Amino acid sequence: MLFELNNTNTQRHSHAGVLEFIAEEGRAYLPHWMMQTLLLEPGDLLEIKNADLQLGSYVKIQPQTPDFLDISDPKAVLENALRNFSTLTKGDVIQISYNEKIYEIMVLEVRSKPDLYQEHPPSDGVSIVETDLEVDFAPPLGYVEPKPLPKRQQTMADKVKIEYTPTTTRTLFHGSGQRLNGKAVKEGEADSTVKSTEKSVPPALNLPFGKLFFGYKLIPLSDEKMTNANEGNDKSFAGSGQTLRTRKRNQDRTPSTSSAIASSSSS
Q1: 2-137: CATH class
Q2: Which of 22, 23, 82, 136 could be cross-linked to 60 through a Cys-Cys bond (beta carbons 3.0 to 4.6 Å apart)?
């Protein structure tokens, strides 16, 4: 059962369902938020009449404080809270409780499902009992959209991204030695430390602000240095070849030659 509530003094109205019929005759007990919506005081006259509302399909709401954004899952909280309501009326400010805190929410817009047979009179309220309701959120009252921070322009140092690792020396076998005769061991010489020869890491560029670096100037080699460099090139495989079977071939050729000489003398 749904009812329309009217405050004839202020021309404010809303809709509500019935929780229990336990009030005394001539009295109605309303939630505090509904009395605020209707601008009612305890003991004021209220007109109540039966209402036939369509099932709602869409509602747009607006939280009245930005604190509503602190809720981690507002959709689940609102879905659970709306189960305690039978109707929603445009312009009402309902209240929901979550984590011992009261949140006020204004109903900005309501839409009902299509009335194919035009059985229901036009109304600014809808029934939300056993219906699929699409909920849209408006920005909370007093909410200020945060301004995006301007992007910092990258400097040449950011674009080059040269990582410099300083060359360090490392010493192997840090422990001290012991001799069988008990004598002290001489300290290791400076040459026993292994020095890193890593040269592939470029040095860091300490450029002043606003200065661009496009590489070092190319200095071509002189003709004399180019000639010396070309002459000093080592030729690969410049020696003469050797075979392991050279002597064997010479031995095979000697008997054939002597046999040829013998045959000629006999003739």
Answers
A1: alpha beta
A2: 136
